[in-house]
Every structure is written in structure tokens, then in C-alpha cells.
Amino acid sequence: MAIPRLTETERDDALKGLSGWTLSEDGLAIEIELEFADFNEAFGFMARVALYADKADHHPEWFNVYNKVRVRLTTHDADGLSARDVAMAQFIDGIV
Ligand code: HBI
């Protein structure tokens, strides 16, 4: 399904409203590294995001080692950033 890619202005405005996210080198994604108290907290976070992702049909690219989780959000169907990435980042900002 084709999903519209954000314009550079929309992308930059969206980043201003987020906390701790950075634009990837290639400009196609937003990324964050999160640190939790322990693995239990980190995995609980991942479980909550997984339920959101399943409902939104939009899935993160992520990497977890013990209490750290690195999240990269991009929209494959848009070959870049879409509103779905911003919405998921806002959800994540709201639960950490
Ligand atoms: N997740 N990040 C991301 N990007 C997508 O384009 C995407 C997805 N999850 C499911 C999904 N697309 C489906 O709509 C199919 O296109 C696979």
C-alpha cells in the first residue's frame, strides 16, 4: 500500500515535537537509544510497542541488549518517513 512520504519540512517539524529522536544519516528514518533499569523493563517496553505495532500495522526496526533498546522508525512502503513513524514515535515518547 502506498503511504505518502513526509516532505523535508514536515519531517523537520515532526522532529521538533519529539523527544530524543534523531534523523538517520540517510534521512530515511528517525532513531533513538533507550536505557531501562534492567532487561525486564526493556522487554516490557518492547511488548507494549509490539502490541501498538500489530494494531497499527506499522513495525519498528529495533535492537535490544539487556537494558538498552535502539529503535529505528521508517516506512518501507514510502521509502522514507511517513506520518506512521511520527505517530509511533509519539506513542513511544508517551510511555518511556
Ligand atoms: N512497517 N515500518 C513499516 N513500514 C511498512 O511499510 C510496513 C510496516 N508494517 C506492515 C506493512 N508495511 C504492511 O502494510 C505491508 O506493506 C507489509
UniProtKB/TrEMBL annotation:
It comes from the Bacteria. Keywords: Lyase. InterPro entries: PCD_sf, Pterin_deHydtase. Belongs to the pterin-4-alpha-carbinolamine dehydratase family. It comes from Novosphingobium indicum. It is an enzyme of class 4 (lyase). The keyword Lyase applies. This is Putative pterin-4-alpha-carbinolamine dehydratase. The keyword Lyase applies. Its EC number is 4.2.1.96. Gene3D superfamilies: Transcriptional coactivator/pterin dehydratase (3.30.1360.20).
